[in-house]
Design goal:
The complex is a heterodimer of chains A (756) and B (74).
Chain A: H1 26-35, H2 39-48, H3 58-68, H4 72-80, H5 84-95, E1 100-102, H6 103-112, H7 117-126, E2 130-133, E3 156-159, E4 182-186, H8 192-206, H9 219-226, H10 245-256, E5 259-262, E6 267-270, H11 274-279, H12 283-292, H13 318-327, E7 335-336, H14 337-347, H15 359-364, H16 378-396, E8 400-405, E9 411-415, H17 417-422, E10 439-441, E11 446-449, H18 456-463, E12 467-471, E13 475-478, H19 481-489, H20 494-504, H21 511-524, E14 527-538, H22 541-554, E15 562-564, E16 568-571, E17 582-589, E18 598-600, E19 606-609, H23 616-625, E20 627-628, E21 639-642, H24 645-653, H25 658-669, H26 675-681, E22 701-703, H27 707-715, H28 717-720, E23 731-733, H29 739-748
Antiparallel strand pairs in A: 1-3, 2-3, 4-8, 5-6, 7-9, 8-9, 10-11, 11-13, 12-13, 14-16, 15-16, 18-19, 19-21, 20-21, 22-23
Helix pairs in contact in A: 1-3, 2-3, 6-13, 8-10, 8-18, 10-12, 14-16, 19-21, 20-21
Chain B: E1 8-21, H1 24-32, H2 34-37, E2 40-45, E3 48-51, H3 56-65, E4 71-73
Antiparallel strand pairs in B: 1-3, 2-3
Classes of the chains: A alpha+beta (756), B alpha+beta (74).
């Protein structure tokens, strides 16, 4: 059940976060978990499996024990040692296509199947056929005390993948009491989940479903998928209403692979359209397995905000046990939900209170357990949960058919051929009888579909280019510009879309529909967004044109090359660029942080671009606040840009701020803003009279013939006090008031100066 | 060395986010839209706009708001 690691929209699981990645190889996880055991424990496992080893380290022996299960002979020996109860326990992993199960959930499911839980699980763990993942603080796991461990609620159990494909599972539980004759038998077409998932896939295709760090959908995306009620609306053809349907559909879509997690931002994206081609035929079975192991949603629905978090094993673990009990019936036999509930009560007392607040928790919260009488009775709660499992989920998926026991009028159920096939107790179900012409394509671009004509492959094909707008007893689709564009993106042509409609339409397609699809398809070609294009930059236009001609003539690329501006060739995919024909002198990857590629010259306002390290962004950024110098006269062919008051004004008007510019200088030049630029960035003041101005004054400067002479004048006590600030080696300021006194003193040394 | 064997020196710009339009007028229309113009760093040619890195999704969303159904090549 580890294949649904976290809910898409619902409450996150209480379980401690696993250190293993969601898609970690289960063999690796199994081996790692075994390797955490003490060497003595592993030696005991090896002995129990009849494996002789000289391994001196736990990790080595864990490797050997894991590899043994991948070896045909070792696997045969291990299988030979399995009891029916062992096979049931291991088979639950395969049935639910889960790599791991919560320990509590596995215990519950086995108890509900009348298996001796402790003996079975302890036996499997002791032989190293199940590995236990415990929180890190648990140093070692004693198989004998698994259930009693304080951390049992957080433990996860992993099986080696070679052991989980069991086929038909032995069921030790008593067969539920068959009913008498049954009337009004009915079953669903099993298409409801397929249709809802198709609609969800379309919406994820139109834009990714973004998630918060807690794994919840952002409000806007949640509203987007619930828009029009298509995913949240109750299922028409079920006999028990199911809660929180969007979470159910998202959970199923993730488990079958129609929605995939984008590792770059953790959003949920639509699987490629090929999913339908490859999987549509088997989708009902895939959905059934996904539902049997789905943990991110359960039949109780989302808890209210003030409710305590659910405790105990997830209710989801009960689904396979309930269906396996039905599988024990003869193919034509029926049983009642009451009989099922009675059997479950006998083998797993208290099953209906799974995840509910236990008495101890209630007491801690200051409530008396005895005062909880306002809620539903135990029997009512049990009946409701069982109905939701059997008459809700299993019925909607087409795994169960329902009827009414004649006389008692009690609800009777039995597995359908699909249900028996999924549980490996029957042959593949016969294909549904369908008919080809089941569409009404209307001039207003709405398409009405009879459900009887729909199959998962046809649903997949229609989903590529027509929006599901209503799913119920009648199914409606809508052709829109967006849906046609999505169809093109998913690899269909306008002609293929029209052919698909025409093939299944009862009448000829209205001319307006053909026109609209063709027009929208043309319109899509008007704008292309490249998320990761490659631009090949040549030194001259002539070189670019020659290369373009040659590359096009070779015709090796699936996608055409495009000339851009004077010196670039645009390639949609870097793989298309004929690397044998070019010599790459520099390369920039725009997913990486920008390089320092601009140098500030001494004047502080001239910026030169290092062509080898620069990128298109740098040029564009520079052009925002500086003007490029004409090419003629550039030293070394470097491109130079000059920052002026006018260019800065232009940038500030366009929204550039000082802080952003300062950050740009740090990033691109490695320096702070040059003082000259900072000077121009100061807020300008009006030059009206009365405004504060910088002080300025005229100075009288004495220039000596040599620095040595001036040193003497400055040092001598008779002249020292008559001088102002020294401006340079041979220049010094003379205060106007001391001019005559200085002249007199210098005369004494035989020095005269002239004043113009 | 024959001319066919001469390798042309080039500079490679990889993973660039661009919008290409079929007509210059459409590029004008896109640039006139403030929310989209904010995402555009430069106009490389009449029909090719350089978009800020990591803003591809925002650009697609804005194009759709404008009624375009862009082909998205990732």
């Amino acid at each position: 059940m580890a294949s649904t690691p976290s809910p898409a929209t619902g409450t996150p699981p209480a379980r401690t976060v696993s250190p293993f990645a969601d898609d970690a190889d289960p063999r690796f996880v199994f081996r790692t978990l075994l390797g955490r055991q003490p060497l003595a424990t592993l030696r005991a496992m090896a002995q129990a499996r009849g494996h002789e080893s000289e391994a001196a380290r736990a990790a080595t022996l864990a490797n050997e024990l894991t590899d043994l299960l991948d070896d045909p002979l070792g696997l045969r020996e291990a299988r030979r040692s399995l009891s029916d109860a062992d096979r049931t326990a291991l088979g639950l992993f395969g049935l639910t296509e889960a790599r791991s199960w919560p320990l509590g959930g596995l215990r519950l499911a086995l108890a509900a199947l009348a298996v001796d839980v402790d003996a079975t699980l302890v036996g499997l763990v002791r032989r190293g056929l199940l590995a236990v993942e415990a929180p890190f603080e648990v140093e070692s796991i004693d198989p004998a005390t698994l259930a009693a461990s304080a951390a049992a609620g957080e433990m996860e159990v992993w099986a080696h993948p070679s052991l989980t494909q069991e086929g038909r599972l032995p069921v030790a539980a008593a067969t539920p009491e068959p009913t008498g004759p049954v009337s009004q038998a009915r079953e669903s077409d099993g298409l409801e989940p397929v249709l809802r998932l198709a609609a969800l896939w379309q919406r994820a295709g139109a834009g990714p479903l973004r998630r918060t760090q807690q794994g919840l959908l952002y409000k806007r995306d949640r509203e987007r998928i619930e828009e029009g009620g298509l995913l949240a609306a109750p299922v028409d053809d079920v006999l028990a209403e199911l809660p929180d349907l969007p979470t159910l559909w998202i959970g199923l879509a993730r488990r079958v692979g129609l929605l995939v997690v984008d590792r770059s931002d953790d959003s949920l994206r639509a699987a490629p359209a090929d999913f339908w081609t490859e999987n549509a035929v088997h989708l009902p079975q895939m959905l059934a397995s996904a539902w049997l192991g789905l943990r991110s949603w359960d039949e109780r629905g989302e808890p209210s905000p003030d409710a305590p978090p659910p405790t105990g094993p997830p209710l989801a673990c009960l689904r396979p046990a309930v269906l396996l009990r039905l599988a024990a019936l003869e193919p034509d036999a029926w049983t009642t939900l009451d009989a099922l509930a009675t059997e479950l009560d006998a083998d797993a007392p208290g099953w209906e209170r799974l995840g509910a607040e236990d008495d101890a928790t209630t007491a801690r919260r200051g409530k008396s357990p005895g005062k909880r009488g306002q809620g539903p009775t135990r029997e009512a709660q049990a009946a409701r949960l069982l109905e939701r499992i059997v008459l809700g989920g299993a019925y909607a998926l087409g795994l169960v058919r329902a009827g009414e026991e004649q006389g008692s009028r009690r609800r009777a159920v039995q597995l359908t051929p699909l249900g028996r096939y999924v549980l490996a107790v029957g042959p593949p179900p016969p294909p549904r009888a369908t008919f080809d012409q089941f569409l009404f394509v209307q001039p207003n671009l709405e398409v009405i579909a009879y459900r009887q004509g729909l199959t998962p492959p046809i649903i997949g094909r229609l989903s590529r280019f027509a929006w599901w707008s209503r799913i119920g007893a009648a199914v409606e689709l809508k052709l829109t510009q967006e849906s046609v564009a999505l169809g093109l993106e998913w690899g269909m042509t306008a002609a293929e879309m029209l052919d698909s409609l025409a093939k299944h339409s009862q009448r000829a397609l209205p001319g307006g529909v053909r026109d609209a699809v063709d027009r929208w398809a043309d319109r899509r070609e008007q704008v292309t967004l490249y998320g990761a294009a490659t631009l090949v930059e040549f030194n001259t236009r002539e070189e670019r044109d020659r290369a373009l001609e040659a590359w096009r003539a070779e015709g090796s690329s699936r996608r055409p090359f495009e000339a851009v501006a004077d010196r670039y060739i645009l390639a949609e995919d870097a793989q298309d660029v004929p690397t044998a024909r070019i010599s790459t002198t520099a390369a920039r990857d725009y997913r990486l942080p920008p390089d320092r590629c601009v140098a500030v010259e001494a004047d502080g306002v001239t910026l030169s671009l290092e062509t080898a390290r620069s990128d298109l962004l740098a040029e564009a950024e520079l052009a925002r606040f500086a003007d490029e110098e004409p090419a003629a006269g550039r030293p070394g062919g470097r491109r130079r840009f000059v920052v002026s008051a006018a260019s800065l004004d232009r940038a500030l008007d366009a929204g550039l701020t000082s802080a952003v510019l300062a950050e740009w200088f740090r990033r691109r030049t490695g320096q702070d803003l040059p003082p000259a630029v900072r000077l121009m960035l100061r807020p300008t003041t009006s030059l009206e009279p009365g405004t504060e101005t910088w002080p300025a004054r005229r100075l009288l400067v004495l220039s000596a013939p040599s620095a040595e002479m001036l040193d003497g004048v400055i040092q001598h006590p008779d002249t020292r006090g008559l001088l102002g600030e020294r401006l340079g080696p041979t220049s010094v300021v003379v205060p106007e008031a001391d001019l005559d006194a200085l002249r007199d003193q210098l005369r004494r040394f035989g020095i005269a100066f002239s004043l113009p | 060395m024959s001319r066919a064997n001469v390798r042309t020196p080039v500079k490679m710009h990889r993973n660039v986010t661009l919008i290409r339009t079929s007509e210059p007028m459409i590029a004008e229309e896109l640039l006139a839209r403030k929310a989209l113009a904010r995402l555009v760093l430069a106009r490389l040619s009449d029909t090719v706009l350089l978009v800020k890195p990591d803003e591809a999704d925002a650009a697609v969303e804005e194009l759709r708001k404008m009624g375009h159904t862009p082909r998205v090549a990732r």
